[in-house]
Design brief:
Largest sheet: 2 strands, antiparallel
Structural class: mainly alpha
Shape: flat
Helix content: over 70%
Radius of gyration: 22 Å
Strand content: under 5%
Strand order of the largest sheet: 1-2
Number of strands: 2
Low-confidence stretches: none
Length: 153
């Protein structure tokens, strides 16, 4: 009976600390799920536009992997906030980490969206920090440099 009380006490302390670490990030969890399922939807549409075969098992596996990746990123950002946030007296570090990760996902989401519509646009959300708000560029088609003709001459 005593061992059971110790195990329950250790588990409750561990889970309480984990929930305390993740409580400020609850809205990022919701945003992550929204981004994951939006990327799944537009990824399927983009694959259909390319003419690829869509397999449910592959889509489910990739979505599950992405969910696990985001859980890991949430835990890492929560640990960074717990470790370094007390020295800076704010919770900005986990937010910065997650915004970078979500920025990468938003780039993927927009790329799949434009590909599903048949448009050749490249989206880089991080260009906001470089030169302003021009984040969407038209993709240039690669030009043939006639390398085969140069080799034969």
């Amino acid at each position: 009976m005593q061992e059971r009380n110790v195990i329950c006490g250790v588990t409750s302390v561990f889970l309480a600390e984990l929930l305390y670490m993740l409580a400020p990030l609850k809205w990022f969890m919701v945003l992550a799920l929204v981004l994951i399922f939006a990327d799944l939807r537009f990824g399927i549409r983009a694959a259909r536009a390319r003419g690829d075969v869509i397999l449910f098992s592959r889509a489910a596996r990739r979505t599950g992997n992405k969910i696990m990746d985001y859980i890991c990123w949430l835990l890492v950002s929560g640990a960074i906030g717990k470790s370094f946030g007390q020295y800076f007296d704010n919770e900005i570090l986990p937010t910065i980490v997650l915004l970078v990760i979500f920025g990468i996902e938003i780039n993927s989401l927009f790329s799949n969206y434009f590909e599903s519509k048949g448009k050749k646009y490249k989206v880089n959300i991080f260009k906001v920090f470089e030169r302003g708000f021009d984040v969407i560029e038209k993709k240039e088609t690669p030009k043939n440099n006639n390398k085969n003709e140069e080799k034969s001459n």
